[in-house]
Backbone:
């Protein structure tokens, strides 16, 4: 199975901050990677697929990028509604696997 | 608008069975593979199983293979998860999820999620 190592586990940030979350995958993985946002008591919401393509309706302050086996989710200017837990997920190889999650908290 | 509504969760004793249902609407159900993904309390996400758009192919995570069975009824736009030999570690919220890919083999990108149903395995 492809292991997704997500970091940090948690971070504290303020509204307006630039936030970066990273997922590292096993070697050989291509860009079949997605990012999800989850708020308490809610299901995950897809944000980005194919490493950098925004889902319809997702604000442009969210962006994704890839460099080799390192994938990054960036929030350019954190908004109050962005405090949540974020998960990466690879769908490059079977079985699909998720990162452990990053909780973005209020500083 | 895609809507997925799970039901059937509850409290069950270890070793017993439970059957979850997921009613889909807002799209052509028979054109898409369907998955179940779970989340233990306070933990991360774990993919469990998938059924192809026509029900002909199924895959399972090692953690549930041989104990859980996925099926679907395209005439009623419903997917099921039969869970047997339940263990305390199966305690989780179970999400019904629609695959992104139209008709072709699932690509395991989880485009639409239900709200989830809680299963608690405890004596």
Residues:
């Amino acid at each position: 199975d492809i292991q997704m190592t997500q970091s940090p586990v948690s971070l504290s940030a303020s509204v307006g901050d630039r936030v970066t979350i990273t997922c590292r995958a096993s070697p050989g993985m291509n860009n079949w990677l997605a990012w999800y946002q989850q708020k308490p008591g809610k299901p995950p919401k897809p944000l980005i697929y194919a490493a950098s393509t925004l889902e319809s309706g997702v604000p442009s302050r969210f962006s994704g990028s890839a460099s080799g086996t390192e994938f990054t989710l960036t929030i350019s200017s954190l908004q109050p509604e962005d405090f949540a837990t974020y998960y990466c997920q690879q769908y490059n190889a079977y079985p699909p696997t998720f990162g452990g999650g990053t909780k973005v908290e209020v500083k | 608008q895609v809507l997925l509504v799970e039901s059937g969760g509850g409290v069950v004793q270890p070793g017993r069975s439970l059957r979850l249902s997921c009613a889909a609407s807002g799209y052509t159900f028979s054109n898409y593979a369907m998955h179940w993904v779970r989340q233990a309390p306070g933990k991360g996400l774990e993919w469990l199983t998938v059924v192809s758009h026509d029900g002909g192919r199924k895959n399972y995570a090692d953690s549930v293979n041989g104990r859980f069975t996925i099926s679907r009824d395209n005439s009623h736009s419903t997917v099921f998860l039969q869970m047997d030999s339940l263990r305390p570690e199966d305690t989780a919220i179970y999400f019904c999820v629609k695959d992104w890919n139209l008709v072709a083999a699932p690509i395991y990108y989880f485009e639409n999620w239900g709200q989830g149903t809680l299963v608690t395995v405890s004596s």
Q: What stands out?
A: The longest strand of chain A covers residues 19-24. Chain A has a mean pLDDT of 95. Chain A touches chain B at residues 32, 34, 36, 42-46, 49, 87, 89, 91, 94-101 (CB under 8 Å).
